[in-house]
Amino acid sequence: MDELNLQLQSFIQEACSHIPASPQRRKALNCLLRAVLKSGRLWRPAAGDIYEETLYEEALCKTMLNLTKTLCDKYDSSRGSFLAWFNTCLRHQYTDEIRAAERHRSHKQSVWQSDDVEFDPLDRVASGIDATLLLKTWESFVQWMKDDPDNFLKTCHIENNPKANCQLIAYLRLVIGKEWQEIATETGSSRGAVTSHWCRKCESLMRQWLEENQRLFGEDNYER
Length: 224
What we know:
mainly alpha; single chain; 2 strands
């Protein structure tokens, strides 16, 4: 095992020696992810393969977020190095993102009748960003959606269907990663009604949150 993987293994042992959600575990996980991002050994698609930077960054973010929740239960050091395991998870997640994007594009022209681009909360996150900041940004965004402290998201719903509200639609789309038809079925509205409501109402609420929380995207918030 090389020096990098030995270092990563020490962070894992430290993280898993503390209870979930504790400051000590979070600190060790942040060190682990920061070391992975700075290693220069992250998996990327080979030359000639499909490569989309936005989807890659989204896959990387989701892989890291999932890792913070499942590392101590799912990673088995006896089966290989952490970096190899992480890259396998990242490759699978990226493949899922590509497939989802291709499915979405196959329906896009019939559903979207304008040049609007689908909202992506990670668009403003620069490539190569520090793991701590990336995780904080995403976790804060997800927590805001769940809490909806001003009740803006839940009360903004499709007419005569309170269940088809921006809080649930955003969570299903951005966090769970469900397709529009799946969201339509779950909320009891048509696919066209859901995507129209998302474009006209929900996206502006998401962008408003991002604009009001620019501090999350500044380098001054890096943990040293």
